[in-house]
Amino acid sequence: MNSSVRARLAILKQSIIYSSQFGLADIAIGCVSKLCNLSRTGVISHFENKDDMQIAILQYGEELFRERVIKHASHSALH
Predict the structure, then answer these.
(1) Which of 18, 50, 68, 79 has its CA 20 to 30 A from that of 33?
(2) Contact, 43 vs 32, CB < 8 A?
(3) What are the tens digits of pLDDT across the range 42-72?
(4) How far apart are CA 67 and CA 62, in angstroms?
């Protein structure tokens, strides 16, 4: 995993934590840059705009849900 992918993943991790507490509508590029100790440009380099960032956060949340809930529930149902 290269540094760009690691940085994007770190941004998504912090963003999902924040948005789960305060809502996705309140998350903005400036907010995320503070959470991740990055410049606004650093965040923008990973996302085209706020909408793109919010969609990526939703997709990351869906991925987490599938891994932690659906997969676990499926595995538990089989045993």
Answers:
(1) 68
(2) yes
(3) 999 999 899 999 999 999 999 999 988 887 7
(4) 9
